[in-house]
Amino acid sequence: MENMNLEDFSIKLGNLCLKKSTINLYSSLNWLPEIAKVLKQVKQLGALRETCFGHLLAIPKEVTFSTGVMHNLLLRQICKPGVTRKDEFHFLVGGKVAKFTKREFCLVIGLKFGEMSDIFLKTYHVISGGIHDRYFGGDENVQLKHVWEKFMGGQFEQPKDGLKMTLVLIANNVLFGQDLRRTVSLWLFALVEDLESFNSFPWGSYVYMMTIHYLRQGPQFVPFNYDDCEQRPNDDGNDVDDADDGNDADDKDSSRTIRELMNAMSKRFEDIVKKKIQKKVSAMEKGLKKRLDRVDKRLDDLVQPHHQVTSTY
Questions:
Q1: Which helix (H) or strand (E) holds 312?
Q2: End-to-end Cα distance, the chain
Q3: DSSP 193-253
Q4: In 112, 127, 171, 175, which residue has its Cα 20 to 30 A from 54's Cα atom?
Q5: Taking 80 as the threshold, does the pLDDT of residue 27 lie above it?
Q6: How far is CA 169 from the centre of its chain?
Q7: Are 72 and 81 in contact (CB under 8 A)?
């Protein structure tokens, strides 16, 4: 344990707690070129570029998502008391603290943040003459694959129908990460009928909220506290400089904080192992008791006839 640094320890403990967790991603950027081809044929590609999702068409084809990177990042999750909020993450990477907040998310995805609309909480009513009504008969169980198949057919009753289907497809698959078997979110059918409202919807806020929610489902342990070194006094009474400020010369001053954290992590590790052992022993005891009960019953069955014969005689 003495030769293990903080990050290695966190990874080992995380692997113990996350060994049964998985990361599934159904978002597919490969849809975008196919969508562009169909819209180009019906002369709606320019209209898509002017929407709130238009910039997504510029994403390089080579961009891929690595579940391995995501898994290893979650293993390095920490909590900085007084700093980390419920709607953000902090990670210890290479001895430095990295953060994931609305700011970083907005820089990457480029979607609007703002006051959240409650349209997805309202009771849904099929809009007469809308794409949900005309193409799918108002069915509440329209799967994403049905919209995709209808869209790829390229036969649209009205000029903007292809654009509206595109926005529903991008929202459900590319942004929400839902696979083709999932039912389309009904509120999208209502929102897409008003393109101005669709474009002004705070998609960044909504998708960020979803991202945080699902990432929180991953770790099955509480992230360890990582005291903010910038506000933590050292032994001589002076403030300790931030360990992730780029100045490595003063990082040694935070060794006390690291030692305390290591001790806390060690105790947590021991508690987890102890609970697992206790659970295993308890299961073994229950299994052994059941076997002994079966043996006792078997012995009683063997001895009982002898007693009956003796008493009769």
A1: helix 255-312
A2: 73
A3: TSHHHHHHS-HHHHHHHHHHHHHHTS--SPPEE---TTT-B-TTSSBPPPTTSS-GGGGGG
A4: 127
A5: no
A6: 20
A7: no
Residue 75 CA neighbour count, 13 Å, CB half: 24
How long a stretch of residues is the chain? 313
Per-residue pLDDT reduced to its tens digit, 28-87: 777 888 899 999 999 999 999 999 999 988 888 777 777 778 878 887 887 766 666 778
Sign, Cα dihedral of 106, 111, 116, 120: negative
Rounded Cα distance, 186 and 210, in Å: 17
Q: How far apart, in whole angstroms, are the C-alpha atoms of residue 309 and residue 307? A: 6
Ramachandran angles phi, psi of 158, nearest 5° = -130, 155
User: Which tokens hold the place of 244?
Assistant: 């992730």
State the Cα–Cα distance between residues 227 and 81, nearest whole angstrom. 6
Confidence band (pLDDT; 50, 70, 90) for 178?
Answer: confident
The C-alpha atoms of residue 43 and residue 58 are separated, in whole angstroms, by 18
DSSP code, position 222: P
Q: Helix, strand, or coil here: 143?
A: strand
Decide: 52 and 199 in contact? Cβ < 8 Å. yes
Q: Quick one: which of 197, 169, 201 has its CA closest to 185?
A: 169
Write out the two tokens for 250.
């003063």
- Residue 253 CA neighbour count, 13 Å, CB half: 21
Q: Please tell me the predicted confidence (pLDDT) of residue 135.
A: 95
Q: Decide if 53 contacts 170 (C-beta within 8 A).
A: yes
Transcribe 44-99 into DSSP letters: -HHHHHTSTTGGGGGS-TT----HHHHHHHHHTEEE-TTT--TT-EEEEETTEEEE
For the cut 60, the answer to whether the pLDDT of residue 7 exceeds it is no
Name every residue whose Cβ is closer than 8 Å to that of residue 94 and which is 6 or more positions away in sequence. 7
CA 265/CA 79 separation, integer angstroms: 13
Please tell me the predicted confidence (pLDDT) of residue 246.
45
- Asked if 175 and 185 count as a contact pair (C-beta separation under 8 A), the reply is no
* CB neighbourhood size of 65 (10 A): 12
Q: What's the predicted TM-score (pTM) here?
A: 0.62
